[in-house]
């Protein structure tokens, strides 16, 4: 195979275990939905074929090597790897194991999942739905596995690599993909972002010139709570500006009324204001429990998995089983 694979719809690729016909570009030109051909060992009609261009080949190599770890490869919370596309059938033959792991594969083949989180509207799942619980359990379980078993972290949890299937059933499936090496604070922020389906954090509502970083810090102060002074003195002025923006007002030129620079409330207040179906109070409690800025006080992924919000249904299922 050529050094850099250029994929196109209709192309048929050969892996170690099967052949794959590319159907639709998911992220052109490197990620495609594919039909699985002549693969009796894998009971699936579709798969995802993923390759890499030069700047991301190291990430693909790291991902392949992560899947060589038995606990990661077999985890029910991590998207399954089906196959490897060989760069050249003879190129790695006879190479020592260490040399093989140093070479990026031509591509990888993963199980097909129906959606990523961004593709699923949160409206019908905000209240009285098991889906937010399954998303939280699955992501936290994957992060707990990486940390407790391998002292590793996933540095890119985001809605594009949280994959879902069977979302309209009582037992949706949620898995994490794109393995790199994020503490779960970011994953909780992404859950809040998904529930609102609009930007809460960030500079989209900035009304001052420049000061983007200070504005974002000021919003975090309002949404989540006070932030400790920076360790690096070079950022003291930025944090001081953020405190001023978060606590101060200005006289609006249109009506001369005193107006706050930062107009958002707490994160709970912002999520409670979402139009349409409301987020359940239990889910809001869970998000508040996790969103602790001080990493020394923030629950670990393992501790978060013990929260009553995630275990209430499991407790009811156990009681039901005991009475059968």
Radius of gyration: 23 Å
Low-confidence stretches: 89-99, 315-324
**Which strand order does the major sheet show?**
1-2-3-4-6-5
In whole angstroms, the N-to-C terminal distance is 58 Å
Residue fraction in strands: 15-25%
Q: From the helix content, strand content and strand pairing, which structural class follows?
A: alpha+beta
Count the DSSP helices.
11
Helix content: 25-40%
Give a count of the beta strands, DSSP E runs of length 2 or more.
Answer: 11
Biggest β-sheet strands, sense, barrel = 6 strands, antiparallel
Q: Globular, elongated, flat, extended or rod-shaped: what is the shape? A: globular
Mean pLDDT: 86
Element pattern in H and E = EEEEHHEHEEHEEHHHEEHHHH
Kindly describe this structure:
The chain is α+β, with helices and mostly antiparallel strands and 324 residues long. The protein has 11 helices and 11 strands. The chain has helices at 57-66, 70-73, 97-101, 131-150, 184-196, 212-223, 236-247, 267-272, 281-290, 301-304, 308-322; strands spanning 12-14, 19-27, 31-37, 46-50, 81-85, 107-111, 115-116, 162-165, 173-176, 249-251, 258-260. The strands form 3 sheets. A 6-stranded antiparallel beta sheet has the order 1-2-3-4-6-5, with no helix packed on it. A 3-stranded antiparallel beta sheet has the order 7-8-9. A two-stranded antiparallel sheet has the order 10-11. Helix 4 (131-150) packs antiparallel against helix 5 and helix 6 (212-223) packs across helix 7 (236-247). It starts with 11 loop residues before the first strand and ends with a helix. Residues 89-99 and 315-324 have low confidence and may be disordered.
């Amino acid at each position: 195979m050529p050094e850099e694979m250029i994929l196109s719809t209709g192309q048929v690729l050969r892996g170690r275990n099967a052949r794959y016909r590319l159907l639709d570009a998911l992220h052109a030109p490197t990620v495609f939905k594919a039909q699985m051909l002549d693969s009796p060992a894998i009971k699936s009609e579709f798969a995802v074929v993923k390759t890499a261009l030069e700047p991301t080949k190291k990430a693909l190599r790291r991902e392949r090597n992560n899947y060589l770890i038995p606990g990661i490869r077999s985890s029910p919370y991590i998207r399954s790897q089906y196959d490897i596309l060989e760069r050249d059938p003879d190129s790695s033959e006879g190479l020592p194991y260490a040399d093989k792991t140093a070479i990026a594969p031509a591509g990888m083949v993963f199980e097909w999942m129906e959606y990523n989180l961004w593709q699923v509207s949160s409206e019908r799942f905000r209240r009285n739905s098991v889906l937010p619980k399954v998303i939280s359990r699955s992501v936290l379980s994957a992060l707990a596995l990486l940390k407790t078993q391998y002292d590793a972290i996933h540095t890119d949890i985001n809605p594009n690599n949280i994959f879902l299937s069977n979302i309209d059933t009582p037992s949706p499936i949620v898995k994490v993909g794109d393995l790199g090496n994020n503490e779960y604070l970011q994953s909780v922020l992404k859950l809040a972002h998904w529930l609102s389906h609009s930007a809460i954090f960030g500079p989209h509502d900035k009304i001052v010139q420049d000061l983007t970083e200070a504005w974002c810090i000021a919003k975090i102060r309002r949404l989540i709570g006070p932030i400790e002074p920076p360790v690096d003195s070079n950022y003291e002025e930025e944090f001081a500006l953020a405190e001023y923006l978060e606590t101060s007002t200005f006289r609006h030129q249109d009506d001369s009324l005193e107006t706050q620079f930062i107009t958002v409330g707490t994160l709970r207040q912002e999520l409670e204001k979402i139009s349409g179906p409301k987020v359940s109070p239990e889910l809001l409690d869970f998000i508040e429990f996790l969103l602790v800025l001080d990493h020394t006080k923030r629950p670990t992924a393992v501790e978060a998995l013990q929260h009553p919000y995630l275990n209430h249904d499991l407790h009811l299922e156990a009681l039901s089983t005991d009475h059968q």
